[in-house]
Specification:
- The complex is a heterotrimer.
- By secondary structure, chain B is of the alpha+beta class.
- Helix content of chain B is about 40%, strand content about 15%.
- Chain B has a two-stranded antiparallel ribbon with strand order 3-4.
- In chain B, strand 3 and strand 4 form a beta hairpin.
- The longest helix of chain B has 17 residues.
- Chain C has a four-stranded mixed beta sheet with strand order 3-10-12-13.
- The chains are: A alpha/beta, B alpha+beta, C alpha/beta.
- Chains in contact: A-B, A-C, B-C.
- Chains B and C meet through strand 1, helix 1, strand 2, helix 2 and strand 3 of B and helix 1, helix 2, helix 3, helix 17 and helix 19 of C.
- Strand 1 of chain B pairs antiparallel with strand 15 of chain C.
């Protein structure tokens, strides 16, 4: 073979300093690592989506994040009905019915043999186990893009607190590489799990899905006392430690949580926090509807739920009027991170 | 920022997505100034617009695309080149 | 069915839909009207230049070529019809109609005859022409020039002309059809001295010509020709001034009358004298740009660093209250409209690759000063802003980006990007500066440029090719090697696969590198590919240097010469090699991603995983994957360039470097070395049609990957991963430029799109 001419080879990048090697090799179950994300923290970011969520929000736009286990997803639009999956399945869980392959989810163990045999990638395994080091190596590939605009990594989900140990390792390693870190959480977890991560977070995005406990239970399956309590403790923690920055996110799902009284109650809750806090009103995007059937779930999304601009502005005005401590913005891309309030008791 | 007084102009500035613009600027700077790529250019049309323009060219008389180092009117291109432009990967953030 | 038929004639219909009204955009009513004028007219041809050339050449049979060429150019300029339309402030149209192009008969006669009948209706870039003109071309001009064009003479001198213009493996048809192109005039110097300055210099040098000195043979012809051409330009300006005065006499509106009189005064003064104001300077630039496009047959006549050489005039006018930024922008918009007005007249075959009438003018802003400070100024912003208002295809506006470039200017450029027109291009100042340091200098040499010259005058030509204003001459878009076809040759023992269009399907087109089924290792396959590549480059180069020699002998270009530094002093035409730095003919590649992906797929599946045998692969390729879809999908799953995957990116980097080194080793006729590039415009479609199925999993005759971008739909990890892949390539070695297309969804950048 001819000697190759001078080769451009990457060096250095992706190599983690040895002193930051994890103390314990906890694996994380992740269903996506997305690069060039811009709505969940400053700058260009990589989002790591942890798999598994305790809530069952009826509008959930990413059902891949619900189950904490690996599962098979099937997209019949890509399927050629070649039958390879039927042949390789050791549990006989696959069968062709009409124009698509039907999976018996009771039998399926998500062993992945069908996905390996599927040449068109109509069947894929959702959920990959990574070590925290592997995740941070992937994240760090884009390090040069984070430098401008203060970008970094955002741990999202699913619910990241369900895998708090692994998340902690990811955040710790990322900090070791001087990366900006953020988490996005529903705060539906024991406070200790959240507290564990806080020293390694620059920003915490915390969702408030409904301020009324009963409505919250109807819409997500759980009452909201734990969440409201965690938000209060989070705000206190942030004030006493001067870190992390807290952004309270209000996902707006038309007809479900944007009525007059909900808006007022939400605003009063924010006012009761008695500290300057960033509030981010998040328009709902119905992007996940096809993913439900891919993992064998019934879609719980009813009709067209996309928020309209005027409604969002009304919500924003409402909060401004009733909660003087809120610094309000609409949409993840609109947060001005240079002007976010540092938490401090009023 | 340069402000101009152009009351007769047909141009209206769109409402920008600040995070989108900032990240776009960072992407350009990093790709060029850090990674040393000599040149980069962008098509920033939504793919659906081009597909619609193929079907209804009369609706898009002045739609322009970047083919290579230059822009041309989409409707001036032959079908094969139009198809190729559409098949190039669209990066959504 | 009717609908799909409409698509096939795409270009013609596009023009009809684009009536004036739909394009009535601009920052002022005047600009809107001019834009309307531009778009109300179908591209057409004028045969004024053709008549002048035939007349002069027939009358000077047997005289030295340079004398005849210079005389013909002078005759063309002197007698050009001075047309001034309503609303105009800048004088100068290259033809007797709007969107009209002069035919360079001495370049085009050989193909024109065959295209004449379909010129008005051909699929790509149809042109209107008068019946009488058409007849005159057929009866008078084509018969005289048919066997004298560059292509005709070249075809007689080389061994396999047909192979080199239609095999789809290596191709130089673009070089043969566009002599007089790819040039940045030294506008700073021209504005400061006017054509008078050049004339005075020529007078001085002509006095020193010694008829008894053998070195001076031909110099008397050179200088008298330069005098005649420059005087012709002065005469033309005078005729525009007279026309403006004539129109002013009959004009009833006092405002327009004053404008016409101002226009007459400007034309009285420039371009002959030095410019004193922004208004005079932009008139000089425009008239020169237009005349260059008449003189040369080719594209890429570049404005260069407009915001730099125009700024002193702008600054002074603003300070002294003669000008406002809005007025300056209006003039710039008018210049953009006029630039877009110049269509590129090319053969059906070339239009197939380069369709869209575009002539690749380029205007850049930003960058550094000669001493390395940020060079941006208010004009940089105005040039970008003007494009948002006027929305023309030309010129290509670009931003020269350096760490020192303020974010504010980048934001101005980003806002132009949001408009979805593809403007602007973004260039890294340091990378193209490094390319210029090695431009035309071979593997171990350095170009004659100093760092100061590069920073002050360097700017891209055409699409992306690094150039230096006034110091560089040479064709920068000359030869093409199709890397997809090269892989195909290596898998077919040098035979071009049957069933493909163009020259030689089923014939031996490259060296016999052996039956691929006998390749024991990936190394054997790798070497076969590189051997084919090396051969294609050398064969192409051999054909192009013959063309280069013919160009130096019979395609002299006096105005290009007058606008290049040092050529008047030397008394030698710039096409003959008197520029400070000669470049070209260059060689570029198309299908870089296809080659890298193909090699990676073979390496991984055949020689590492061993899940596919070479025999299976060859059989599947021969059948264009018919009945082998499973194998094709396996190939599609192999690592793909553009995802920050070292496995394939390393192969891409190695091929890229090999190609660059091979090309830079080729010595050209004028003494410089060839330069490699990846810049090819939509040729990935045309060349794709002449390329068989490739191990990347691409079907036969489908488009190749464009320029240096990833293959269509294969860069799935977002723009940062794609950028990281591209960033692994050694750009300094690609001394003739690289082009990268990226697609960002518009809805992410702006919420409401103003239509």
């Amino acid at each position: 073979m001819r000697p190759p001419p001078v080769l451009v080879r990457r060096t250095g990048l992706n190599r983690i300093p040895t002193e930051s090697v994890p103390r314990q090799p906890t694996k994380a179950m992740v269903f996506d690592i997305s690069r060039y994300m811009i709505e969940d923290g400053p700058g260009i970011r990589t989002n790591v989506f942890f798999k598994g969520c305790p809530l069952r929000c009826v509008w959930c736009s990413n059902p891949f994040g619900l189950s904490p286990r690996q599962e098979v997803a099937y997209n019949h639009r890509k399927c050629t009905l070649c039958g390879a999956c039927v042949g390789v399945c050791p549990e006989n869980a696959c069968s062709i019915e009409g124009d698509r392959v039907v999976t018996d989810r009771q039998r399926c163990t998500a062993c992945g043999k069908c996905a390996g045999a599927c040449l068109t990638h109509a069947r894929v395994i959702v959920g990959t186990e990574y070590s925290p080091l592997e995740i941070v190596e992937r994240v760090n590939e884009d390090a040069t893009f984070y430098r401008r605009g203060g970008g970094g990594v955002t741990l999202s989900g699913g619910e990241v607190l369900m895998q708090a140990d692994a998340a902690l390792e990811v955040l710790r390693l990322a900090r070791g590489l001087m990366l900006h870190t953020a988490i996005e959480t529903s705060a539906h977890a024991q406070w200790e799990r959240l507290e564990l991560l806080l020293p390694y977070c620059d920003i915490v995005f915390v969702d408030l899905k409904h301020v009324d406990s009963e409505r919250h239970r109807c819409l997500t399956g759980w009452s909201n006392e734990l969440i409201l309590e965690n938000i209060r403790r989070l705000v206190d923690y942030s004030a006493s430690h001067a870190s992390p920055v807290v952004v309270l996110r209000l996902p707006v799902i038309p007809g479900l949580n944007d009525d007059e009284s909900t808006m007022s109650e939400t605003a009063r809750f924010i006012a009761s926090l008695r500290t300057a806090i960033a509030v981010n009103i998040l328009p709902y995007h119905n992007l996940g509807i096809t993913k439900y059937e891919m993992v064998g779930l019934e879609s719980t999304i009813d009709g067209d739920l996309d928020a309209d601009a005027a409604g969002l502005q009304r919500y924003c005005d409402h909060i401004r009027a009733l909660a003087a401590n809120a610094v309000c913005s609409i949409g993840g891309g609109e947060i001005d991170y240079d002007r976010l309030p540092k938490s401090s008791k009023a | 920022m340069l402000t101009l007084d152009t009351p007769e102009s047909t141009y209206r500035e769109p409402e920008y997505n600040p995070a989108g613009i900032r990240s776009f600027m960072n992407l350009v700077r990093t790709t060029l100034n850090d990674h040393g790529v000599e040149h980069i250019q962008f098509n920033t049309l939504n793919k659906e617009t081009l597909v619609d323009a193929q079907a209804h060219p009369e609706k898009y008389p002045t739609l322009m695309v970047r083919v290579a180092g230059y822009s041309v009117y989409f409707t001036d291109l032959g079908r094969r080149v139009q198809d190729d432009v559409i098949s190039r990967t669209e990066h959504r953030f | 069915m009717q609908e799909s038929a409409a698509h096939e004639v795409g270009s013609r219909l596009g023009m009809e839909w684009r009536d004036g009204k739909s394009a009535e955009v601009g920052s002022t009513r005047r600009i809107q009207q001019l834009n309307r004028l531009l778009h109300s007219n179908r591209p057409s041809v004028d045969i004024h230049r053709t008549r002048c050339f035939t007349r002069v050449f027939q009358a000077t049979e047997g005289e030295p070529y340079i004398r005849r060429r210079y005389k013909a150019c002078a005759e063309t300029y002197r007698t050009l019809e001075p047309v001034i339309y309503e609303h105009e402030q800048l004088a100068g149209w290259q033809g007797n109609r709007i969107r009209c192009e002069q035919i360079n008969i001495e370049m085009h006669a050989d193909w024109l005859e065959g295209d004449l009948d379909q010129m008005r209706v051909r699929q790509f870039d149809p042109f209107e022409i008068d019946d009488d003109d058409l007849q005159e071309l057929r009866d008078v001009h084509i018969p005289y020039w048919r066997d004298k064009t560059l292509t005709a003479v070249w075809a007689k001198q080389v061994l396999e002309p047909l192979k080199m213009v239609s095999s789809g493996i290596a191709d130089c048809v673009n070089y043969l059809g566009s002599a007089g192109s790819h040039f940045i005039p030294d506008y700073g110097h021209l504005l400061a001295t006017g054509y008078k300055g050049t004339y005075d210099m020529a007078v001085e040098r002509a006095a020193a010509v010694d008829p008894a000195n053998p070195d001076d043979i031909g110099k008397r012809d050179f200088y008298s020709g330069i005098f005649e051409v420059l005087e012709a330009i002065r005469t033309l300006a005078g005729r525009y001034a007279a026309e403006a005065r004539r129109l002013a006499e009959t004009e009833t509106g006092p405002e327009r009358q004053a404008e016409l009189l101002e226009m007459a005064e400007v034309m009285d003064r420039v371009p002959w004298n030095p410019a004193r104001t922004f208004r005079e300077a932009i008139q000089t630039v425009w008239l020169t740009e237009m005349l260059l496009s008449i003189e040369g047959a080719g594209p890429s006549l570049t404005f260069g660093r407009f915001d730099q050489y125009m700024y002193p005039y702008y600054e002074r006018d603003i300070a002294e209250g003669r000008l406002t930024p809005e007025k300056a922008m209006e003039l710039i918009e008018e210049m953009y409209i006029k630039t877009t007005n110049i269509p590129w007249f090319q053969s059906s075959q070339l239009a197939y690759y380069f369709g869209g009438y575009y002539r690749f003018p380029h205007l850049g802003v930003g960058g550094l000063t000669k001493l390395g400070r940020d060079a941006s100024n208010e004009l940089s912003y105005l040039c970008l802003r003007a494009m948002r208002h006027v929305r023309t295809t030309g010129p290509t506006v670009s931003l020269y980006l350096h760490q020192k470039t303020p974010d504010e200017l980048l934001l101005e450029a980003a806002k132009l990007s949001v408009e979805g027109m593809g403007h602007p291009s973004y260039f890294d100042v340091e990378t193209y500066s490094r390319m210029l340091e090695y431009r035309g200098a071979g593997l171990n040499g350095k170009s004659p440029y100093t760092r100061e010259q590069i920073l002050e005058l360097g700017s891209p030509i055409g699409c992306v090719e690094p150039g230096v204003a006034g110091l560089q001459y040479g064709h920068t878009d000359s030869g093409i090697v199709n890397l997809g076809a090269v892989v195909s040759l290596a898998l077919n023992n040098g035979v071009k696969p049957a069933g493909l269009p163009g020259w030689g399907p089923g014939e031996v087109a490259g060296p016999q590198t052996g039956d691929p089924r006998n390749f024991a290792t990936y190394g054997d396959f790798h070497d076969a590919v590189l051997t084919q590549l090396e051969h294609a480059i050398r064969e192409l180069h051999a054909h192009m240097i013959v063309a280069e020699k013919i160009i130096t002998e019979q395609h002299q270009i006096p105005l290009f010469t007058a606008l290049s530094r040092g050529c008047i002093e030397k008394g030698v035409d710039v096409a003959a090699g008197s520029a400070v730095c000669n470049v070209g003919p260059t060689i570029q590649c198309v299908g870089l991603a296809d080659m890298a992906n193909s090699m990676a797929a073979v390496k991984k599946l055949v020689y590492e995983d061993r899940t596919v045998t070479m025999d299976e692969l060859c059989t599947a390729l021969d059948a264009d994957f018919n009945g082998h879809e499973e194998l094709r999908l396996k190939l599609r799953d192999a690592p793909k360039y553009g995802n920050n995957d070292d496995y394939v990116d390393d192969i891409a980097a190695e091929v890229f470097q090999f190609f660059a080194d091979e090309v830079r080793a080729q010595r050209c006729y004028r003494g410089n070395y060839s330069d490699p590039a990846v810049q090819m415009v939509q040729a990935n479609v045309g060349f794709g049609e002449m390329t068989w199925a490739t191990p990347s999993g691409r079907h036969a005759m489908r488009p190749l990957a464009d320029t240096m971008s990833a293959e269509q739909q294969t860069d799935v990890n977002g723009p940062t991963a794609a950028s990281l892949s591209y960033g692994k390539l050694n750009f300094s070695a690609f001394t003739n430029g690289t082009l990268l297309n990226m697609w960002i969804s518009r809805s992410e950048l702006a919420r409401v799109i103003a239509d």
